[in-house]
Amino acid sequence: MQTEKNRKYNNLSPEIWILNRNGLQRCDGGKPVCGQCVRYNRRDDCEFNDGPSPSNSRVLEQNIARLQARIHELEQDDPTLIRLQAPYVEAASPALHDQTNWWETPELPTNIVKTLLDSFVPHGFKFGFFLDMPRFLVSLSSTDNATPKIPDVLRNTVYLLGIHFSKSGAFMAHESVFLDKTLRCVHYALSVAQEQQTTTLYVLQAEILLAYYFYHNNRLVEGKFHASAAVSLAMLCKLHKTHSYGNIGVLPITSAWLSPSNDAVEADERTRGWWQTYVLDKSWAVALVESSSIIEENDDPATVVDTPWPEINNNVSISQRLLVTRLMLILLPQTATVRASGGRTLQVFFEGTSGDTNISTFGLHAQAVALYERASKLSSYQDRSW
């Protein structure tokens, strides 16, 4: 049974109370502005509530009805609906549509390859890519038997980095699959490197890319492992002994790993390959406060770097540069100690007597790294002298 007080309040019509300097007062319901708001000069603040507020259960019912309507809308495949998405989340690549387990196929679909290459190419140089990019892309996509085929070890490494740089969840979900596949390929390639010398430069490229990949992901032990493997390969191939004749790279004839360059482009690749290895080794040795794997000793000619700095390509045609290569290979005796462009590249540079004026931007970068490593070494000597 309701009390007399409850019956009194239930019989009241809906009313609004306002708070002012005189306390809580009842609104008289005048329109367009109630008397209280006129009296206290609050015309702009006057608002009306034509009925009682809905109960909590009614509010919940309205929310449930709204959510059910939204669910029904999402379940409908209506092409006229405008779908909203998070502005900073990349949508799944259209290359993935209608592809079933593309990551398990021996040869990736063409559209997948294109998408991964589009992600890799802008970042390749920063991760130590030294091969000629236009030639590499042609070889990677060519079906012509006359075009040299890119071995799986480098192909999978590039795909791995393409997945990593894509920042697409649909691709990155399979990054570990490609990492395992790449590491297996590297292990096999190193085990047969002496029998398959034509792929050695590709294996070196894969090792450099992997070292940067692991360093980038803060996996330092694995990064150092692959960086050391890259240095070993480069030294074994005597890339630090590549000489320059008219911008043609010529390896010592005593080298048992690499045959002479076929053209100027391949010669430039070998020069850049050495200096990319050098930059990787020296810069990360300083960053990790560890000893460098590349050590040049004046009394050991085998360790002296004779490979010239990477140069800006000039207007000499490939055929002319190739002719120079062939002539030098014929004229040079096998036991000759050649000093093209002066040799002793690093020693001459540190002595300040180089005089090179045709060095490329990457060559200047390599020189900066050489100075950076030398300054760090001198600083460590000074610290120990205190």
UniProtKB/TrEMBL annotation:
Any one Gene Ontology molecular-function term assigned to this protein's record: DNA-binding transcription factor activity, RNA polymerase II-specific
Record's keyword terms, sorted: Metal-binding, Nucleus, Transcription, Transcription regulation
Residue stretches making up the Xylanolytic transcriptional activator regulatory domain: 130-292
Subcellular location: Nucleus
GO CC term, one of those recorded: nucleus
Main location: nucleus
One Pfam family of this chain: Fungal_trans
Keyword check for Cytoplasm: no
Keyword Transcription: yes
GO biological process, one term: DNA-templated transcription
Name of the protein: Xylanolytic transcriptional activator regulatory domain-containing protein
Lineage: Eukaryota, Fungi, Dikarya, Basidiomycota, Agaricomycotina
